[in-house]
Amino acid sequence: MGGPLPEHIMDEPAYFYLLTTYLSYMILIAFGRTRDIFGKIFKPEKYKDFKERDGYAALSSDFDNFYFRRLKTRMNDCFMRPITGVPGRYITLLDRISHDYNETFEYSGGHTETLNLSSYNYLGFAQSNGPCADYVHVAITKYGISSASPRLDTGTSDLTQEVEREIAGFVGKEDAMVFSMGFSTNATSFPGLMGPGCLILSDELNHASIRVGARLSGAMIKSYRHNDMDDLERLLRENIGQGQPRTYKPWRKILVVCEGLFSMEGTIANLPGICLLKKKYKFYLFIDEAHSIGALGPRGRGICDYFNIDTSEIDILMGTLTKSFGANGGYIAASQSIIQKLRVSNAAMLYGESPAPPVLMQILSSLRQITSTAAGLERLQRITFNSRYLRLGLKRLGFIVYGHDDSPIVPMMLYHPGKLPAFSREMLQRKISVVIAGYPATPLLTARVRFCVSAAHNKEDMDRVLKACDEIGDLLDLKFSTGIMGGIDPLPEGMTLEDVQKVDDRRSRKVMPPRWALENVIASGVQDCRCQLK
Description:
Oligomer: single chain
């Protein structure tokens, strides 16, 4: 924390695993298309929605949804698992079975309690009891369940204004405004900030809400390579020098947009590098802190707190209130003039529903827990420890893990499409709930499981996850790591990783791939995760 962002080195498996992944998709496509050809002949009723009928064009194309019918359906049991109760440290699943290969499901009437590594409950505030729940109960008695109005009409209460003041003070901005939905926070704010004649430079891995909002604004949009400051500077130089297309007039405004913590990669934005470019090229900066607010920094105040950068250097801070605060919705924090403009031009303020009073009280009480109680500080310390401990343990066991050390999002690479559902089902047998992600949410070759770490977890929970991953990793052959991303044996004093390997030639490494025994990982993890992870 507080220094430049360490380089994020990417590991990759042997070519054999990449080739078999391609081969798996080729087999899937070949068999799927063959089944479609014969299915249209012998079972035409199953394809009626893909054909023109009574003069109406087909609403859906069999080619467009081929992937979902032929691959996702096979693993539907791994997605949208219905739950009951609070998604805290543990999560209770409603048991279900399918008799038609995951086309439909039936509930069996049973329940399964599992360790929850699938929810964005970073600080563990998803609770049905405790101080926050007590305050929420009081708020329901006083304010009711809903304000029954948009913000611009009668949907702004004294509680709403208090929450906005608290958020503005928490992130270090003059003013803030809250929304009832995180996605719409981005989707409706960009049209109020940018327009035709403006340029938006967006990280290529930014969230869909940023992309939707940027398109709605009517501004020109260009993407730079993920976290690549050289590519961002190249785009800035080119576009400032050339101006707008055809007219070559100077851009009205240039806005650089990136996330503080990327939810699929687990990487932290290179904010120090962006701020250096901002001083040089004089653009506006928008940071989406949906995953970083509450989860990063010694005080939980996001990426600026993490790098010890004054929030005045960032023009607009956005965040969601679901992940770290156990509530829902989002916020925009900026100067008073920007917020005043958005209050009268943002579609969510004019037409969207107001945040519910119980949700506002949950936000307010959790913020005060973080800022003014020892329990709040303990939550911040615990999520940092859990993130580093689990990440280091997985690396030492031999898995390829993406992301930076302090990220509470820990993506572990699976690659093979058949190993996605297999991993999820094996974890469920061990009563652990996880999230798997593959194409189109990720590139074709980089299917992964994404562990979401929480302050509600303890070391025993992390050890349980490591034990399960160690067993399943051997079962499914998932230990691909070469050691260049970390996890190798501790190096002698004064020696660096570059001294013992050829970093420019990944096919002629001198380090041994990490394959630690589980008991050694657990024995040394607590002490080692306090250091810079190797």
